[in-house]
Amino acid sequence: MFHVLNRARGRAFALACVLVLLTWPVPAATPRAKPEEVGLSSERLRRVGEAMQRQIQAGQIASAVTLVARRGRVAHLEAFGQLDVESRKPVATDSLFRIASMSKPVTGVAILMLIEEGKVRLADPVSKFIPEFKGLQVSADAMATAPAKREITVADLLTHTSGLVSGPANAEIAKTLPGMALLTDTTRPQEPLERYLPRIASFPLSFQPGERYSYSPLAAFDALGRIVEVASGQTFDRFLKNRLFDPLGMTNTSFTIWREQPNRLALIYRRIPGGIEKFANQNQLVGDVYFSGGAGLVSTAEDYYLFAQMLLDRGRANGRVLLSPTTVDLMTAPHAPDTLPGSTRGGDFGLSVQVMRDPIALGQRVSSGSFGWGGAYGTNFWIDPKEKVVGVLMIQMQGGSTETRRDFQNAVMQSIVE
Fold first, then answer.
1. Which three-class secondary structure state does DSSP give residue 45?
2. Which of 123, 299, 115, 290 is nearest to 219 (CA)?
């Protein structure tokens, strides 16, 4: 009798597992299209590859993966060059890239999700989540500090208006302080956000909160990652997996996939007279335990496209609403306009993304109202709502490559024929 009951329970459990698998929402495969089906020219789109090959031959980059989508379907996905120049290992369309600051919009969306739930407000002081951030000091000059006029807020972090380890001069000073160099240098802390982030509060802000725009390469968005943890009750990596990566089908994006699948990871190179060479620190900006919201994720071109397309579709993906359309509008509003001291003319800053209000002033070949961001190694994405285009560029070159990005943008935009 005991064995019969066990077998019955086993069959019931197996049936339940099958039912769960059958009813679990599985993201659909990325929709594909021939270029002409979405108003692109196949002949003209080949200029993307020609541009990448020129950049490789000129020693500007070692490899590239390029993706172009229009009207919700991928019309171009190609790989060029080599993951490892020395071994001549070719890059593949699913190769992994350190996306560096392209992590920031992902962190921004995580915060916006919590804002929608009422767990975080843009006006909340950071000290509500990280108490050590109360009563911060501001650098008055090289030798003195003064109290901040107000506390830094979640909105300040999202728009680079907090003054938290912001700007090159501030970053250089940070390198001289015990335990702070990791915020600006090439090695990630070997401890979680919960333990490391409170230390940042001991470092004076570079200006009064909200009074100027000055890019915070890591600290501001790392602090946002910790806010996600406190507000959600999950570690930052788990929140992103559960709330973003799994629903979007981003199976090749995480903080640790570079360690788990090293053979797929593109190597970082740097330019030298007459060519390129492998960059010395291949683990720059990635880590196992410190999940950097500012620059820690590794991804593929197609995975990141899924994230970008969700934003172009105003928060929808795979039949689910991940963000309200009004929240996407909030994300791309000019929270830090180009009139703010320190800003770049023509480029307003939204909540974690740059909004290209005047592409001509910015020197960018996109439509007005396009938005996106890039990473330290030249990775870049943009979303063009007017043309319904998403462009994703993955390269791994120390210092990036403005020429590569501009050539890619130009090749994509000139391929639009209807």
1. helix
2. 290
CATH number of this structure's domain 107-232: 3.40.710.10
Give pLDDT, residue 144. 86
Q: What is the pLDDT of residues 18-36, one digit of tens each?
A: 443 333 344 457 999 999 9
Task: Count Cβ atoms below 10 Å from residue 418 Cβ, excluding itself.
Answer: 7
- Structural tokens at position 417: 């024929």
The DSSP annotation for 372-396 comes to EEE-TTS-EEEEETTTTEEEEEE--
Tokens of 392: 């994703």
84 Cβ neighbours under 8 A, 6+ residues apart: 267
One-letter identity of residue 146: A
pLDDT digit string (tens) for 59-107? 999 999 999 999 999 999 999 999 999 899 999 999 999 999 999 999 9
Cα angle 43-46-52, degrees, rounded to a multiple of 5: 160
Lowest-confidence range among 20-29, 59-68, 249-258, 270-279?
A: 20-29
Give CA–CA dist 389/408, Å, rounded.
13
Confidence tier at 167 by pLDDT (50, 70, 90): confident
107-232 shares the fold of 35-103+234-413: yes
Residue ranges of the domains in the chain? Answer: 35-103+234-413, 107-232
Distance separating alpha carbons of residues 312 and 294, to the nearest angstrom: 22
- Whether the Cβ atoms of residue 360 and residue 231 lie closer than 8 Å to each other: no
Whether 111 contacts 159, CB under 8 Å: no
The closest of 198, 178, 181, 182 to 190, measured between CA atoms, is 182
The residue assigned the tokens 């994006």 is 253
> At 98, which amino acid appears?
R
Report whether 302 contacts 67 (CB < 8 A): yes
For the chain, give me the number of helices (H) and strands (E)?
14, 16
Superfamily of domain 35-103+234-413: DD-peptidase/beta-lactamase superfamily (3.40.710.10)
- In the predicted model, is pLDDT for residue 268 greater than 80? yes
